[in-house]
Amino acid sequence: MTHKAFVTGWPISHSKSPALHGFWLDRYGIDGTYEAIAVEAENFAEFLSGLKAHGFAGGNITIPHKETAHAMIQNLDPAATDIGAVNTIWFEAHVICGGNTDAYGFAANLDDFAPQWREGKRALVLGAGGAARAIVYAIREAGYEEIRIANRTYERAEKLAADFGDKCQPIKMSDVAGLQSDLDFVVNTTSVGMNGDEGKLPVDVQALPATTIVTDIVYTPLETPLLAAANNKGLRTVDGLGMLLHQAVPGFEKWFGFRPEVDRQLREHVLGLS
Ligand code: NAP
Questions:
Q1: Which pLDDT tens digit goes with each residue over 226-270?
Q2: 125 partner at 20 to 30 Å CA-CA among 34, 178, 179, 271?
Q3: Is the four-CA dihedral 15, 19, 20, 25 of positive or negative sign?
Q4: Which residue's C-alpha comes closest to atom 1 of ligand 1?
Q5: Contact between residue 226 and residue 193 where contact means Cβ atoms under 8 Å apart
Q6: What is the pTM of this model?
Q7: Is 159 a catalytic residue?
Q8: pLDDT at 198 over 80
Q9: Cα of 121 to ligand 1 centre, how many Å?
Q10: Test site for ligand 1: of 100, 172, 191, 266, most ligand atoms within 8 A of the Cβ
């Protein structure tokens, strides 16, 4: 039997997920399909309820449906529950289940390239948008004692910090410069740096300790201005592409019954996409 999976969003044509999952289906010779399906917000509920009848084993949910899926699905994993968004769905005994694999993907990428990130105590998270929720969840799960969250719109940093508990504190962008000499870990979750975005981040990498790990979840370009500055200072850096690749692993395993590998060949395949 051919196993069927999908990614849905609106729009969806930009998604790299079909190429990513298609690469694995080919590599492992699996009898399966993974297709992109554009669904408008008003049709999402109907789409979700028809999945089983259309023979889907599950799929990925992306913008703008992640929060709607969270509200509609009863059986959620702990990450989806806390993050408030679902990016992966599957069926267990005909019951639809929702998970969020972004935090897993973020952590697995760091575990690959800078495993000592788990030993840190103080982190700075730049940004408080949708992706930041998964990042704060992952850093909290890694056992950090203090997570400082800075965002251009301060109220969103306050809300995010309040949602994730007493290890999190909102800080003003203008206060970042004075609060970075004891940081173990810095992550940019804003879109600043993406495709030449001219926005400016408040971090002065020269003022970071020599042991600070710096990562960016933006992966176009692979070396963002933040990572370039950190690399120039000789800091350990990790780019954001691995997060995209690793977040796809749990879904693939659930739908197709095989745990795929993230490796250099997959990175090059996805990097080669226009
Ligand atoms: P989002 O919900 O729209 O949030 C955008 C964030 O960027 C907000 O914190 C926003 O601040 C901030 N921002 C935007 N322009 C800014 C500027 N000029 N100066 C300062 N802050 C600015 O987006 P998202 O879904 O969180 O995604 C954020 C980025 O992460 C995107 O580039 C996305 O491609 C990337 N991403 C990567 C992965 C991966 O797998 N590597 C996964 C998810 C997302 P305000 O609140 O003040 O507007």
A1: 999 999 999 999 999 999 999 999 999 999 999 999 999 999 999
A2: 271
A3: positive
A4: 129
A5: yes
A6: 0.97
A7: no
A8: no
A9: 24
A10: 191
